[in-house]
């Protein structure tokens, strides 16, 4: 494990200036911390804000960059202006990542930063991730995957480095809650974000609210399904979700599993959410 970290630092040390695509998630936070540790001449964390990302995640990214003492900039993009993204085909993540990472590349070029990196890990390469193609086309490097670091490796090393993100629940963009080929709307994204925030405030840290038009399907971790299914909890959730605009609310008794929306795209091949920010 420590040898992987040494190899990663050696790889990063060869880069005089680095721009990190930074979401504040487990992977990109670890990558940013590793880059900071080797102290390049210029290190920049670049976060892209869109309606696909809850504002609480943008705020958290600012907090982590600040705690690491790394310069950060946040770029805004109206991703719903991109009709290829809004159509929500199986290639949605490619078009989304192409738009966001193009902004990062342009900003890095303007600032004279030579190298672009993102926090894709080895596990990500085994999944259906159209966004990885966009990153590769734009010249982004993936040092974590190149050094064979898995998600579990990154969590262990993050804990070793004292990063508060070591046990942060995995996040994915809000668009992953909407079935493939169903048009993405601002209204649906707001409803999903509000619903998930409500459940998190009730104590369900890892949660997804899959949005089938006006029907909500709640996923929590399997061991929390009994808790979310109680009559007392239903009395809190059902009226709140109705106020948000959901006509029906269901609980997935199978519990949360990454990539359930992928099953219709890759039948029989369960995997992680398509657009899963590092």
Intertermini distance: 20 Å
Classify the beta-strand content into a percent band. Answer: 5-15%
Query: How many strand elements?
Result: 7
Rg, rounded, reads 19 Å
Largest sheet: 4 strands, parallel
Helicity, as a percent range? 40-55%
- Side by side, the strands of the main sheet go 3-2-1-4
- Sequence of secondary-structure elements: HEHEHEHHEHHHHEEHHE
Structural class: alpha/beta
**Averaging pLDDT over every residue, what do you get?**
92
Regions with pLDDT < 50 over 5+ consecutive residues? 265-278
How many distinct helices?
11
Pick out its properties.
single chain, alpha/beta, 11 helices, 7 strands, globular, disordered C terminus
Give the secondary structure arrangement, pairings included.
Layout: H1 2-13, E1 17-21, H2 26-38, E2 42-49, H3 55-68, E3 71-76, H4 83-86, H5 92-110, E4 115-117, H6 130-137, H7 143-146, H8 151-160, H9 186-201, E5 207-212, E6 215-220, H10 225-228, H11 231-244, E7 248-251
Parallel strand pairs: 1-2, 1-4, 2-3, 6-7
Antiparallel strand pairs: 5-6
Helix pairs in contact: 1-2, 2-3, 2-8, 5-6, 9-11
